[in-house]
Specification:
Elements: H1 7-25, H2 30-57, H3 63-68, H4 70-76, H5 83-95, H6 102-130
Length: 131
């Protein structure tokens, strides 16, 4: 098994935190909001990839089983606290590829502050699971 590295997740969380700080300073700038949404996309994507990899490499799960219910399997192995909340994050991330109107963009943006504690929790759980 190759060594698992969580630096990309750490960096994506830090970038998202920085983006939210910048948005708090310049809430009128849609480019800042859109940048935060893009950072959210990256953080969710990295989270999903790491979850799948840990489920496969550490818990020896079959890829087909993981693909069907990634977040439920992750919750079952205590990698995440709440599968439904994570499914919501993933669904919001999937919405971002279709954001051409302000309502959808704002709905996704409003979810991001709630994602951060979940992402930090995931990082700690992944570190613990692979220690």
């Amino acid at each position: 098994m190759a060594e698992l590295n969580f630096d990309a997740l750490k960096l994506s969380i830090a970038a998202l935190e920085q983006g939210l700080e910048e948005h708090a300073q310049y809430p009128q700038l849609l480019t800042v909001r859109d940048g935060v949404i893009q950072r959210f996309e990256v953080a969710v994507d990295i989270s999903q990839k790491l979850i799948r990899r840990v489920l496969q490499e550490v818990y020896q799960m079959e890829p087909a089983r993981i693909a069907k219910n990634t977040m439920r399997e992750a919750a079952g192995m205590a990698l995440i606290a709440d599968a439904e909340r994570w499914i919501g994050h993933v669904n919001a991330r999937n919405e971002t590829s279709h954001i051409y109107d302000a309502r959808k963009a704002n709905a996704v943006f409003e979810r991001i502050p709630g994602f951060l504690p979940d992402a930090r929790d995931l990082l700690q759980r992944l570190i613990n699971a692979t220690a």
